[in-house]
């Protein structure tokens, strides 16, 4: 059996919690929380990532190197890790354990406590990943906590106890939403709110993109080519990785039914927002004065509100269900699996099959890239 000691006991005794590392953390924690009101207090990135800084510093990395390493986590990941590491800090405080030099046994007890508190598999797995940023083996300086054989076996056992199922076992009919937005006509006379909702829904359906990506659509990276609008995504998104081509989203015209044509709706939206857009380059702006650029949370809220007004049960389906609904509908229409993966930004068919595909069957055939959106819009 593998040695359960991730960090040697000689490296940091259990009673060394009053070390300079922990003192620094307590100073930052006290200073930060004193400046926060009770209503805004929560998992603190500064406090939690001080632990990671101390862990890296103890391994001999310079401040300059540490600053670069800390940029490897995206804001959303930092927020998730902050919550887990704050719980870890409280756990170590009660047991007088140094949170940066704890053993794998202590860390696994922390995961066990999370399980007994009712945490789901995904929550415990996030905590495992967060601790991997802190705890390393001193024997080879390479093995992270999450890669330890006993931790891997623990997570396998937890999955057997609490299997992680996809959020949706079925999905909603995209035809319901298409019929709803098709009634928002004529485009020139409907309210800006309706025009905005119509465009955001058609974009979500015909591109199968996340709310984050939709919020990053930028008119400065937009090119109109005959019957298509090409949008380059230059910001960092979830699927953006080294060596991977820069993401590009295609909005295709749909001449068969102009009431659900995303390109026509986009051009009208640009025309309607031109007078108050000014220097704002993001495509989607708030439909209320002062018409600010909006973020991911607002896009999600608009999508969810559209589902509500169309008659879809939002107690069951959230904004992210647009990806499930559209890709499943495309699969039912016979869109090739490789085209679905390319459109949605998935590298593996396993992700689609396990978490998103709720179609009856998948048929493979040849087709152009616009086939995805054509298949979606034809279901009105």
TrEMBL record:
One term of GO molecular function: DNA binding
Pfam families referenced in this protein's UniProt entry, alphabetically: Phage_int_SAM_4, Phage_integrase
InterPro entries with a match to the protein in the record: DNA_brk_join_enz, Integrase-like_cat_sf, Integrase_catalytic, Integrase_recombinase_N, Integrase_SAM-like_N
Keywords, in A-Z order: DNA integration, DNA recombination, DNA-binding
One annotated GO biological process: DNA integration
Signal sequence interval, chain numbering: none
Start and end residues of each Tyr recombinase domain: 163-369
Designated name of the protein: Tyr recombinase domain-containing protein
């Amino acid at each position: 059996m593998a040695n359960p000691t991730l960090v040697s006991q000689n490296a940091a005794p259990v009673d060394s919690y009053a070390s300079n590392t922990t003192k620094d953390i307590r100073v930052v924690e006290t200073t930060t929380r004193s400046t926060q009101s009770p209503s805004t207090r929560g998992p603190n990135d500064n406090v939690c990532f001080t632990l990671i800084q101390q862990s890296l510093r103890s391994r001999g990395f310079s401040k300059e190197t540490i600053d670069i390493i800390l940029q490897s986590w995206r804001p959303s990941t930092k927020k998730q890790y902050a919550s887990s590491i704050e719980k870890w800090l409280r756990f170590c405080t009660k047991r007088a354990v140094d949170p940066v030099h704890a053993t794998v046994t202590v860390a696994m007890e922390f995961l066990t406590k999370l399980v007994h508190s009712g945490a789901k598999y995904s929550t415990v797995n996030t905590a495992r990943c967060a601790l991997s940023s802190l705890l390393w083996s001193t024997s080879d300086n390479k093995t992270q906590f999450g890669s330890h054989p006993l931790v891997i076996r623990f997570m396998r056992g937890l999955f057997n106890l609490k299997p992680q199922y996809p959020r949706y076992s079925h999905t909603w009919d995209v035809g319901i939403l298409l019929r709803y937005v098709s009634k928002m006509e004529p485009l020139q006379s409907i309210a800006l709110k309706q025009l905005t909702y119509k465009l955001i829904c058609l974009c979500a359906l015909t591109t199968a993109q996340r709310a984050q990506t939709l919020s990053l659509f930028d008119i400065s990276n937009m090119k109109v080519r005959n019957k298509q609008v090409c949008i380059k995504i230059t910001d960092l998104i979830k699927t953006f990785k080294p060596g991977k081509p820069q993401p590009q989203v295609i909005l295709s015209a749909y001449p068969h039914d102009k009431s659900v044509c995303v390109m026509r709706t986009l051009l009208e939206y640009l025309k309607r927002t031109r007078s108050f857009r000014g220097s704002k380059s993001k495509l989607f702006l708030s439909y209320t004065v002062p018409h600010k650029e909006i973020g991911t949370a607002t896009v999600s809220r608009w999508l969810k509100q559209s589902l509500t007004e169309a008659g879809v049960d939002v107690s069951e389906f959230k904004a992210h269900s647009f990806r499930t609904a559209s890709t499943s509908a495309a699969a039912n229409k016979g869109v090739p699996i490789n085209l679905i993966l390319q459109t949605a930004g998935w590298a593996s068919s396993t992700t689609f099959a396990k978490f998103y595909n709720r179609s009856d069957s998948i048929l493979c055939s040849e087709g152009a890239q616009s086939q995805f959106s054509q298949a979606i819009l034809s279901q009105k």
